[in-house]
Design goal:
This protein has about 450 residues and is α/β, with parallel strands linked by helices. The chain folds into two domains: about 1-195, Glycogen Phosphorylase B (Rossmann fold); about 215-435, 3-Layer(aba) Sandwich (Rossmann fold). The protein has helices at about 15-30, 55-65, 75-100, 115-130, 155-165, 180-190, 215-220, 245-250, 255-260, 290-305, 330-335, 350-360, 370-375, 400-415, 420-435, 440-449; strands at about 1-5, 35-40, 45-50, 105, 135-140, 175, 195, 225-230, 275-280, 305-310, 315, 320, 325-330, 340, 365, 385, 390, 395-400. Strands 3-2-1-4-5-6-7 form a seven-stranded parallel beta sheet. A six-stranded parallel beta sheet has the order 10-9-8-14-15-16, sandwiched between helices. Strands 11-13-12 form a three-stranded mixed beta sheet. Helix 12 (about 350-360) links the parallel strand 14 (about 340) and strand 15 (about 365). Helix 1 crosses helix 16 (about 440-449), helix 8 (about 245-250) packs across helix 14 and helix 12 packs across helix 15. The longest helix has 25 residues, at about 75-100. The chain is globular, with a radius of gyration of 23 Å.
Length: about 450
């Protein structure tokens, strides 16, 4: 079959883009021809519909008006604008489907998140007009996001009810969710049955190792071998709760804890000395609320944590900029890191967790609800940050200091225990291979397609 995977963007390091890459690989292995449709193509080849661009000025304006009310349009003007853009998207999509004889359309988050109602209307209209099948890959739902769950007009509220996702099309659209909680929510809220397809990883791929290209990563990042690289590879956004990683390192930096470490041999043979420093490294794109990044910088400074923020060094794939500078893949960032911080308080599944398993690095994890429900029972070994947090007045979150202290002690123990470090990551790799591999995904996609 000819299958088109559709999203606002592809070829980037966000979770949806990465998961689409995996679906494409598996579907092609099953003998299908796979296309991408998006608003931006990143490092991939895709059919571009400009109105889908997630950073398009007009698209952002419509979304702000629909959910935050910035008063650039009155209600009727907003409705007219949404429907006008929808017609343009519909026309382009119909042309692509016809020219490429598409049999199945796979909208990713387009019929679930609530973003860009004009796109959801267009896709649904196209499905109705063409009669082609669809597999709606729903990574997130609008009711899970505060921003998208508060429409500013009755028109937008109606669109959420009608198109996210559309009902009455069960014979044409198969619903896919990425966790058990979402499956239950979709049934309760929309009366729709769905299939759980968890995020996966290609555990048979070539392991990420130091090579001639990435051996300069640390140097380009600006750190040396006497610094312990704590990697935060996610996007920089509020729900990733990166401030918890800062709090953890702050405790590890306390004089008594440093005295415990001085003179000890690290897992890889380095010696922890007076000049050894923990460095929290952020390489993801910034998509948080206004001011979140600034709050993190201020929080790290207050806590005395060395935090490096470099969003230009890492992208979806390797490449050389026009200025002759190296751009590394996300996978290169994992090679040189010592531990991974993953303090997210909410995830639909958790791509960085999977990447950490494959990279064979220990992980520090806040046990968000989906982790507790769908992942914890697989018995991965992680440094736990617990499962409870509170939100502070400044918008950042915090967890029990006692838990931070215990997590810091466990982290230091792992860093200084060769056997524990490597047994931990090898066991996690094996569990991931068994439950969350491309082979497991292939079984599920065979049924769906």
């Amino acid at each position: 079959m000819n299958i088109a995977l559709m999203h606002f963007r592809v070829g980037e390091t966000d979770g949806v883009s990465l998961e689409m890459d995996k679906w494409k690989k598996v579907l092609e292995h099953l003998g299908h021809k796979v296309f991408y449709i998006a608003g931006s193509s990143g490092s991939c080849e895709a059919f571009i519909i400009p109105e889908l661009h997630y950073r398009g000025e007009y698209d952002l304006l419509l979304n702000e008006e629909a959910y935050a009310k910035i008063d650039k349009f009155n209600e009727q003007e907003l409705e007219d604008a949404v429907l006008k853009v929808s017609r343009s998207i519909e026309k382009q999509l119909l042309t692509f489907i016809k020219e490429n004889n598409i049999n199945v359309l796979v909208p990713n988050n387009i019929l679930s998140l609530g973003r860009s109602p004009h796109t959801a209307i267009a896709v649904t209209n196209v499905l109705n007009k063409t009669g082609i099948k669809a597999v709606a890959h729903n990574h997130d739902f609008y009711w899970e996001r505060e921003f998208f769950s508060k429409p500013t007009t009755n028109f937008i509220k109606e669109q959420l009810e009608i198109y996210f996702p559309p009902t009455g099309m069960e014979n044409q659209i198969k619903q896919v969710v990425i966790n058990t909680l979402a499956k239950e929510d979709l049934l309760v809220k929309k009366g729709l049955l769905s299939t759980v397809v968890p995020n996966v990883f290609d555990f048979k791929d070539t392991l990420w190792k130091t090579d001639d290209y990435n051996k300069s990563f640390k140097k380009d990042l600006g750190i040396n071998d006497n610094q312990i690289l704590m990697l935060q590879a996610t996007r920089v956004t509020d729900r990733k709760a990166i401030e918890l990683a800062i709090d953890l390192i702050s405790v590890m930096n306390e004089p008594e804890n440093r005295r415990q470490m001085i003179g000890k041999t690290l897992y890889d043979g380095r010696i922890f000395d007076d000049n050894t420093e923990y460095v929290l490294v952020l390489v993801g794109i910034h998509e948080g609320s206004k001011g979140y990044s600034d709050k993190l910088v201020a929080h790290a400074k207050k806590k005395g944590v060395n935090m490096l923020v470099n969003t230009d060094l890492v992208d979806h794939s390797r490449g050389i900029t026009k200025e002759g500078k190296k751009v590394y893949s996300l996978w290169d960032a994992y090679v040189d890191c010592d531990m991974i911080t993953y303090p997210s308080i909410y995830e639909g599944w958790g791509n960085q967790f999977l990447e950490g398993l494959f990279a064979k690095k220990p992980q520090i994890v806040f046990e968000y609800s989906v982790y507790e429900r769908d992942i914890k029972s697989m018995n991965f070994k992680v440094v736990s940050l617990g499962n409870k947090y509170i939100s502070k007045e400044n918008g950042l979150v915090e967890i029990s200091h006692d838990i931070i202290v215990m997590a810091a002690q466990e982290t230091m123990e792992i860093l200084t225990n060769h056997d524990k470090y490597y047994v931990m990551v090898e066991e996690n790799f094996e569990i991931g291979t068994k439950h969350l591999s491309l082979e497991a995904l292939e079984v599920l996609l065979k049924e769906l397609f």
